[in-house]
Amino acid sequence: MNNRIIEGFIVFEGIDGSGTTTQMNRLAERLKRLNIPVRCDSEPTGSVAGRRLRTLLKTGNAEDPLFNTTMSSLFSLDRALHVYGENGIISTATGGVKLLCDRYFWSTAAYQGVNGDVDEILELNNAFPLPEYLFFLDVDPNEAVKRIDRRNAAKEIYETAAFLEKVRTLYRAALKRYEDSGMKIFTADTSQPADETEAFIASCLDFLPKCR
Ligand code: TYD
Fold it and tell me: What is the pTM of this model?
C-alpha cells in the first residue's frame, strides 16, 4: 500500500445523503473564522472526465459490467488530474492550505465495488497519496434516501436504499484495510444533528484550538 500522507489534506466519505458536503462546508467556515487558509474540492471534479461522469451518473446502468469498469477508470483519471494537476491537491496542500475534499478513492472502492472487485479498484488507485484525516460519515441508508428525496433533485443511478446499503458495507471493508496506514480515520454517526457532527469533527483535528 502507498503510505504517502499529505498533511493538511482532509477527506470526507460516506453514502449519498450522509452529509459529506454539509460537513465539509461547515468545517471550511469554521477554519475561515479562525483565519486558517482553506479550499473545498469535490470528486468528480470539473475536469473533462468529471463532467462526463456527472452525465453518466444520471443515465448509466450500474449493473452493466462494462459501464462499471468505465466508471472506475474515469473516476481514477479524474482523480489523477485532481491530485497531480496544476493547482491540484498536492500543490495546494503542500502550500499550506487546508484542502478539504468531498469524496476520494474510497468512493470508487465502495460504489464501483458493488458491481466490481474492491481489491482491483484499490490497486488501480494505489498511486494516490493519502489524506492526513479521513472522516467516514455513517448513516442508515433508509434515512439517507429520505434526505435525498427531500432535496427534490433528480435522483442519480446509485441513490437507492438497496444500493447504498451495499456501498456502506464496502466502505467499512475498504476503510478497514487502511487502519494501519498512518491516516487519522474517524467515523461520525450523522443520524445525530449536524451541529453535533460538526463539533465532533472539529474535536478530531489536532491543529484546532481545543476549547471553543
Ligand atoms: P455527490 O458527491 O453526492 O454529489 P452530488 O450531491 O452533487 O451529486 O455525488 C457524486 C456521486 O458519484 C455519488 O453518488 C457517488 C459517486 N461516486 C462514485 O460512484 N465513485 C467515485 O469514485 C466518486 C468520487 C463518486
Answer: 0.97
Q: Whose CA is nearest to atom 25 of ligand 1?
A: 107
Rounded to the nearest 10 degrees, what angle do helices 161-176 and 141-151 cross at? 120
> What is the rounded distance in angstroms from the CA atom of residue 14 to the CA atom of residue 165?
11
Full pLDDT tens readout for the chain, 212 residues: 778 999 999 999 999 999 999 999 999 999 999 999 999 999 999 999 999 999 999 999 999 999 999 999 999 999 999 999 999 999 999 889 999 999 999 999 999 999 999 999 999 999 999 999 999 999 999 999 999 999 878 899 999 999 999 999 999 999 999 999 999 999 999 999 999 999 999 999 999 987 55
Q: Does the beta carbon of 161 lie inside 6 Å of ligand 1?
A: no
Q: How many CB atoms lie within 10 A of CB 166?
A: 17
Q: Report whether residue 156 contacts ligand 1, using a CB cutoff of 6 Å.
A: yes
Map grid coordinates 489524506 to a residue.
131
**Do residues 137 and 19 lie in contact, with contact meaning Cβ atoms separated by under 8 Å?**
yes
Q: Is any ligand 1 atom within 6 A of the Cβ of residue 43?
A: yes
Contact criterion met (CB below 8 Å) for 126 and 145 = no
